[in-house]
């Protein structure tokens, strides 16, 4: 009976109950209890019951919190210590996130480049040592973070990816050399990935251990690589509407429900038309058109920013004319305007309105380009930071140093002095 009662509480409360006694701690940390909790909270995939944030760089554009699963008082991105996001501690800053974990880079030491991977909700952090100098030379360029999850969405391991000095993205030799730090082994290894295409200005999206390169020297193509695989080849995926260069289209690449999603909007006289494709998880890398719907919104351009990370039927748009967020329910084909203090059932919503206006207007502002076609086929991607479905500790690499947020900040302060 105690187990059934505990499993119905929010995770933030359950985490505190682990310290009541050894019996409760053992019960809560068991696989049975975790599966019971997840089964009772399986509706946490709905759009109004998941805590997540959408970031542009280190800046939070919008955040949702207050869901029953965690009962967090703030959005996930706000739990990352402000110094990490605002460059207040030397050269330490937020870099990437995957599976609910966050990657923090510390470049305050000119001789080394340390990193920290952690769970901002649990305030747990693992210190990642710099690679051996014989592997890196002078390069300290960090590329991203990937994770491996189990069937319940619990993080089993993570890998930090860095670019080796011999293969900066602007190289002409079509070899992409990377360095990988694995939480399973606690050591750095090198890997060379072959690319038949010339890779230039890179931004990325990660999902299930795979990083998708969203901006290449070849327009309308994604490059992808699973960093948990033994493959030494890039996959290349053609975007579903390429080469449609309609200058009025707004496009974004995002993730939802465990898939890579491609969203496009077109403002017409009486409605905004949404088309959404899903990249199938198969060997063919084919796209499936999931939605093609029209919303009779106020006249104006609406740019797609993201889909709900778990609810494949919810998409979020930005009004370029009225400067507000819109949440669209694709199944019901209705929408609502989100505000700074809007309530969505048990959900709270935070929007940094001045930041959104400043950043998003700049992103979709037309600029001069040598190639008019390339300019009209621009695809953007934003970083989604989600709260883990379970309070599992951050995977600890062998001999790695574990710390909480308070001790991490003190360490960084002392290093700066």
UniProtKB/TrEMBL annotation:
Pfam families cross-referenced by the UniProt entry: b-prop_At3g26010-like, F-box
Superkingdom assignment: Eukaryota
InterPro entries, per database record: At3g26010-like (IPR055290), Beta-prop_At3g26010-like (IPR056592), F-box-like_dom_sf (IPR036047), F-box_dom (IPR001810), Gal_Oxase/kelch_b-propeller (IPR011043)
Domain F-box protein At3g26010-like beta-propeller: 50-396
Biological source species: Eruca vesicaria subsp. sativa (Garden rocket)
Name this polypeptide is given: F-box domain-containing protein
Domain F-box: 3-35
């Amino acid at each position: 009976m105690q187990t059934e009662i505990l499993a119905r509480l929010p995770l933030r409360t359950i985490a505190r109950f682990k310290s009541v006694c050894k019996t409760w701690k053992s019960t809560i940390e068991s696989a049975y209890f975790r599966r019971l909790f997840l089964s009772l909270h399986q509706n946490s995939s709905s759009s109004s019951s998941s805590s997540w944030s959408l970031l542009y760089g280190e800046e939070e554009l919008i955040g949702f919190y207050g869901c029953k699963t965690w009962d967090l008082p703030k959005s996930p991105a706000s739990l990352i210590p402000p110094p990490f996001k605002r460059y207040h501690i030397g050269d330490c800053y937020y870099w990437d996130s995957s599976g609910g974990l966050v990657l923090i880079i510390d470049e305050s030491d000119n001789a080394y480049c340390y990193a920290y991977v952690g769970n901002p909700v649990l305030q747990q952090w693992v210190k990642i040592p710099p690679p051996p100098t014989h592997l890196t030379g002078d390069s300290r360029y960090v590329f991203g973070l990937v994770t491996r999850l189990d069937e319940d969405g619990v993080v089993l391991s993570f890998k930090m990816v860095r670019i080796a000095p011999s293969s900066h993205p602007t190289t002409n030799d079509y070899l992409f050399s990377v360095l990988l730090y694995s939480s399973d082994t606690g050591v750095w290894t090198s890997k060379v990935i072959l690319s038949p295409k010339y890779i230039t200005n890179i931004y990325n999206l990660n999902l299930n251990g795979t990083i998708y390169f969203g901006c290449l020297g070849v327009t309308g193509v994604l490059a992808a690589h699973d960093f948990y695989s033994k493959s030494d080849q890039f996959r290349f995926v053609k975007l579903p509407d390429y080469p449609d260069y309609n200058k009025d289209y707004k496009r974004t690449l995002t993730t939802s429900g465990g898939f890579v999603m491609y969203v496009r909007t077109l403002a017409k006289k009486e409605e905004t038309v949404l088309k959404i494709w899903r990249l199938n998880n198969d060997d063919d890398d084919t796209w499936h058109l999931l939605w093609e719907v029209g919303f009779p919104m106020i006249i104006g351009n609406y740019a797609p920013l993201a889909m709900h990370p778990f609810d494949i039927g919810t998409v979020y748009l930005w009004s370029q004319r009225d400067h507000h967020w819109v949440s669209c329910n694709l199944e019901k084909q209705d929408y609502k305007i989100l505000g700074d203090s809007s309530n969505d059932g048990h959900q709270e919503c935070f929007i940094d309105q001045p930041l959104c206006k400043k950043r998003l207007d700049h992103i979709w502002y037309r600029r001069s380009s040598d190639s008019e076609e390339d300019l009209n086929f621009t695809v953007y991607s934003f970083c989604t930071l989600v709260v883990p479905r379970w309070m599992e500790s951050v995977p600890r690499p062998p001999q790695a140093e574990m710390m909480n947020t308070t001790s991490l900040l003190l360490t960084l302060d002392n290093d700066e002095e």
